[in-house]
Write a structure and sequence with these properties.
six-stranded mixed sheet, 15 helices, alpha/beta, three-stranded antiparallel sheet, single chain
Length: 361
């Protein structure tokens, strides 16, 4: 898999922090206006022809911050305060969450998104990933199935209790000795579907690993999934709601998010295949009309914006066709709607049949 992340040592980051702050101070002491240039990245554009030159490795220009603009002054103030906290974490070899950082200066940061933006800027300036800064997310992801691994010396034995949920470790870089007897990895959008499969003893009858990010996946879940693919070389299938949000979650796993475009090459999982639910599934499995919901005006705007993403036409044009079909039909439905046939339809029929017959995109 491309873009395997390398660890940036704390001593290297501390040196880069020192060099950056020194350059800012030298400008101030010399009566020069400090100027900070931050590379900008994107993992897609709106060229639906797919003939663009978007790259996961190259920056898409630079953003220039200067003290001449008040809004830039506030942003640089936040950046330097967050950078000071990061420096302290690295020096003391401690970890903190984004929320921890926010509450250190809530009157300055105002809201969490301000800290998030500063952390992204710092990662770009220091040429590293967020976990290298010792800033961790509060993990939401769950895993179960034919998998065993260690994290910081602690064993996670999912095989012993195949259908029991285990929390995905936050410090993915501490995971080692991964062992599995699985034949594939299944990623499901929602915890409710994950629990449905657990209740149906899905992993007992299917040699697989099941992962959920409980909606939009956090960084640890995406890094964990990449690590599994890199170590186990298994096919990976993704099951999401047949609606614009489900499709966006699917593309986040495969292509990364725009917010973390600078780190997409370390977070994306190009091997992800779309297992469902497809718009065409509503007819194929004869879903009753009451299971289908009309697309809202916001849904339609989201779909139209997503259809213009360059990577759909370039890499997965068949995904784009299904998304366009959703827009044409004007309806959406949840994965659970397939349970109208029987409570265990997903676990016993839908998923195994689709994988066995290669009915994925």
């Amino acid at each position: 898999m491309e873009g395997k992340s390398e660890t940036v040592q704390p001593c290297v980051l501390l040196r880069r922090i020192r060099d950056f702050t020194r350059s800012v101070l030298e400008d101030v002491c010399s009566d020069r206006v400090p100027v900070v240039r931050i590379d900008r990245f994107r993992n897609y554009c709106a060229d639906s022809s797919g003939k663009c030159c978007c790259s996961f490795d190259l920056s898409d220009g630079k953003e220039t911050l200067t003290l001449k603009k008040e809004c830039h002054t506030q942003r640089l103030d936040v950046l330097l305060k967050v950078l000071l906290i990061v420096q302290k974490l690295l020096l003391e070899n401690r970890h903190g969450s984004k929320r921890d950082i926010y509450y250190m200066h809530p009157s300055v940061f105002v809201e969490q998104s301000v800290v998030d933006r500063a952390l992204n800027d710092i990662c770009i300036l220091l040429k590293c990933s967020r976990h290298n800064l010792n800033v961790v997310s509060v993990g939401n992801g769950l895993v179960m199935g034919w998998l065993r691994f260690f994290e910081s010396g602690r064993q996670f034995d999912c095989i012993k209790y195949l259908n029991t949920a285990h929390h995905i470790p936050v410090q993915v870089e501490q995971i080692s000795d991964i062992m599995s007897l699985a034949q594939y990895i299944l990623v499901v959008e929602k915890e409710s579907v994950f629990q449905r499969l657990a209740n149906d003893q899905f992993c007992g009858t299917n040699r697989c690993i099941v992962v959920t990010g409980k909606g939009y996946p956090d960084i640890p879940t995406r890094r964990f999934l990449r690590l599994l693919i890199e170590k186990l070389h298994l096919p990976v299938y993704c099951l999401v709601d047949c609606d614009p949000y489900g499709f966006d979650i699917l593309t986040t796993y495969r292509f990364g998010s725009m917010q973390l475009a600078h780190d997409a090459k370390f977070l994306r999982v190009p091997a992800v295949r779309w297992l469902g639910a497809f718009p065409s599934d509503s007819e194929r499995y004869k879903l009753p009309q009451q299971c289908l919901l009309p697309l809202s005006a916001e849904d339609k705007r989201r779909i139209e914006a997503t259809l213009s993403r360059c990577y759909l036409q370039r890499e997965v044009p068949e995904w784009r066709l299904e998304l366009d079909l959703m827009l044409q039909r004007g309806v959406k439905f949840e994965i659970e709607a397939l349970s109208v046939r029987s409570l265990s339809f997903l676990a016993e029929t839908y998923i195994p049949s689709k994988i066995q017959h290669g009915e994925y995109l």
